[in-house]
């Protein structure tokens, strides 16, 4: 039976690969964005957030940028979209409505599901890089 299957497979012809009719698309670079980009103030006097890069896909938009929190008033944020965040500098205390609470530091990665209500605070400052499933500026 094994030789029968190998003969049957070898007699099947693979379709020729399709040639792309789309024009090449260039990537975008944001030089030194982690240190040079200054996100705008979004809440209180210590919470800053700004989109650096956004997709052009209208059906499944993606936005990426930086969130910075300085010592002071905690930020409570309810996510209306899915987001991933990596802590790139400083530290945060991050908690949610389930009672989960962590001390987040450089290198930690988080997933905040749509509908989660997250509280961010810090004793110094924290900087996170995020990627969210949302349109530009919809945070």
Automatic annotation (TrEMBL):
InterPro entries: EutQ (IPR010424), RmlC-like_jellyroll (IPR014710), RmlC_Cupin_sf (IPR011051)
Biased composition (Low complexity): 1-20
Ranges where the record places region Disordered: 1-21
Superkingdom, taxonomy of origin: Eukaryota
UniProt xrefs under Pfam families: EutQ
The protein's name: Ethanolamine utilization protein EutQ
Organism whose genome encodes this protein: Lachnellula arida
């Amino acid at each position: 039976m094994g030789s029968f299957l190998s003969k049957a497979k070898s007699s099947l012809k693979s379709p020729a690969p399709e040639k792309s009719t789309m024009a090449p698309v260039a990537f975008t670079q944001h030089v030194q964005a982690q240190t040079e980009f200054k996100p705008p103030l979004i809440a209180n006097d210590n919470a800053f957030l700004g989109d650096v890069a956004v997709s052009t896909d209208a059906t499944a938009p993606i936005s990426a940028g930086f969130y910075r929190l300085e010592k002071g008033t905690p930020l409570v944020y309810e996510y209306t979209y899915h987001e991933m965040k990596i802590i790139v500098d400083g530290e945060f205390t991050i908690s949610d409505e389930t009672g989960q609470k962590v001390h987040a530091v450089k290198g930690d990665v988080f997933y905040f599901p749509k509908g989660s209500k997250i509280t961010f605070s810090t004793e110094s400052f924290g900087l996170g890089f995020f990627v969210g499933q949302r349109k530009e500026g919809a945070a």
